[in-house]
Specification:
This protein is of the alpha/beta class. It has two domains: 69 residues, no CATH class; 163 residues, Nucleotidyltransferase, domain 5, CATH 3.30.420. Strands 1, 2, 3, 4, 5 and 6 form a six-stranded mixed β-sheet that branches. Helix 3 packs across helix 4 and helix 5 packs parallel to helix 12.
């Protein structure tokens, strides 16, 4: 948690959280934002923040609501993602989604019942960079939305100018049209998506379908290293839930869940920036041998 108090974090946040030119001068937005991050990481209450910071708890609540209404959280996340991509010569992307149960464990505004999990909740669909383990784009949806549908939305949102060299996903994204869409957008990209067995193959078990499977596999790559890289997205979601506590915040409804997804992603980017710059500073100050 030391990254929260570094000069790199404050400098990065100052690009987005400028004080308003109108109205009376209040508490700094950067200060309030960092206290909100502290609350999230330590899982304390607004009353605890008041006792530690000396700022009334209602100020934090109002500030968080303003961040949601103004759309500041997705804007900060998208700006951090663009900054990350502009400094990379190549991208190895991994696509997946993760289900998050509602805090009340019952139906909430915007939630849906997911039959596979047999729970009510939401979904976070993310496209992450393999090297940095950071999200480059994401979408929050109710919990029963199909992965392949939202996968196409994520790919549509990504610019064709990105230096994508590979994209890996699981069988939930197996679609000839989806693979072709990726190949058309990033011609140099290798696509590692395994094939699913069709219902006819499961029922009959015939080998006559080998030609169809072979034709479907032609645009894809079967590089084992690339296919194994898909496990990193599971670790990413696990860290997002257990370190950054996504799904454990005492908030309800889809709007709050979406804001929580953006907030955790922003924290991941800020942590990476602080760690990277701190490492660069240490290397720069080390005596040459």
């Amino acid at each position: 948690m030391q990254w929260l108090n570094t000069a790199q974090t404050v400098q990065t946040l100052s690009r987005f959280l400028q004080p308003s030119a109108r109205g009376r001068k209040g508490y700094g937005k950067i200060l309030l934002f960092r206290w909100l991050v502290y609350k999230w990481l330590m899982r304390c209450s607004y009353r605890d923040l008041q006792s530690m910071s000396g700022i009334d708890y209602s100020t934090f609540i109002k500030f968080r609501k303003r961040l949601i209404v103004s759309g500041a959280l997705p804007q900060i996340f998208e700006a951090l993602s663009r900054s990350l991509i502009t400094h990379k010569e190549s991208l190895r992307l991994i696509l997946d989604s993760s289900f998050v149960e509602t805090y009340s464990k019952h139906r909430e505004p915007g939630s849906e019942y997911f039959g596979y999990k047999k729970k009510n909740g939401f979904k976070l669909h993310s496209l992450i960079d393999y090297e940095t383990r950071l999200p480059v784009t994401q979408i929050a949806t109710p919990g029963a939305r199909a992965d392949i549908v939202l996968g196409r939305v994520l790919i549509d949102r990504a610019p064709p100018a990105w230096p994508v060299r590979s994209l890996a996903a699981d069988k939930g994204y197996d679609s000839e049209a989806f693979v072709q869409e990726i190949k058309d957008k990033w011609r140099k990209a290798r696509v590692g998506i395994p094939l699913r067995r069709t219902n006819q193959e499961k029922v009959t078990g015939r080998k006559e379908f080998w030609l169809n499977r072979w034709l479907k596999s032609l645009p894809r790559t079967w590089d084992k290293k690339l296919l194994r890289s898909r496990t990193e997205v599971e670790r990413y979601f696990s860290r997002k839930k257990h370190v950054f506590h996504l799904g454990e915040e005492k908030t309800r409804g889809f709007q709050n869940f979406e804001a929580n997804c953006y907030l955790t992603s922003i924290m991941e980017h800020l942590e990476y920036i602080a760690r990277l710059l701190r490492l660069f500073t240490k290397l720069k100050t080390c005596p040459s041998t």
